Automatic annotation (TrEMBL):
Name of protein: Rieske domain-containing protein
UniProtKB keywords: 2Fe-2S, Iron, Iron-sulfur, Metal-binding, Oxidoreductase
Gene Ontology MF: a single term: monooxygenase activity
Keyword Iron-sulfur set for record: yes
Residue intervals of the Rieske domain: 13-117
Amino acid sequence: MLVSQVPAFRDYWYPVAYAADLTLSPRAVRVLGEDYVIWSGRDGEIGAAVDECPHRGSRLSQGWVENGDLVCPYHGWSFAPSGVCTRIPQNDPDKPIPPRARTLSVLVAERYGLIWICPGMPRASIPELPEADDPEYVLIHEIMEVWTASAPRVIDNALDVSHLAWTHRRTIGDSSRPRMNGLTVERDAERLRSRVSYASRLTDAQRANTGLTGEFTTRVTNSELVQPFVFRDVMEYENGLRHVLFKTATPVDDTHTLFCQFIARNDNPDEAKRAGIIELDRKIQNEDRELLERIRPEFPLQMQTEMHTRTDRMTVEYRRILAELAAESACVPPDNTWAVRAGFRPL
């Protein structure tokens, strides 16, 4: 499966930029292979549209913003955040603007300090991430960057706790302690929840970030698939610290993902501690990125395509959720059209 083959993916909200980065200039963004433009209008209103002028097809993101309206760089047509054309400079002042002279707008909203768009008709709201709105927690934005990996691969990696001992052996993992203890997995429609505990190595950076001492700690992880490309993980430490990890994977196209990570902490870290947390989390994600960018973008949906173990229960359910969404359309070919070439041989 490639993300472009599943029309249902258009019906979710995706973060495309930090709200703080949306200034006086329009910004080009890409979701599911389609180009969009976002801009800041009057009184905090946000505009989002297909990045193409209805007049002669120029890229609106190459234009600029005047009085909250987006100005096309080709002929100067202006568009309000609603999509309505507000000015055609070449027309006589008394000539009305045709109603069809408007951008193809898409839904847009701001939440958690992020700009979200929905290319289709939303089947769900912007995901509820309770700690990101909770005044008892401090919200820290860490990473937003494009990875050369497909969005399902990115979220599959987030749901896969058992890789920590190996992929992250240089940061928080220890391959001599790979056991996952007390794993439970629950599914409710498109939501998945799991709980597991495991040994996490305490490096100097981890001790500084958590306030713990010793060589190892037992960390309890409460993972949740909130939406197909939105992940939440509440990490519980023995000293009462809660480090809540949010990951979103905006599918740019079949082979690229806008990866966004932000966290919420209940210990109100100062600036120096925040910098240390961000530095370690970036190292951890770079370890994932290095691995994921070498995995082919197609994502298997048939259970027999791969081998599975007991600790893969969360990622097995993820495949079932995506397979159900893919089944709404006839666009997704079976795994054996690509998996055999990759070395897999479905039974």
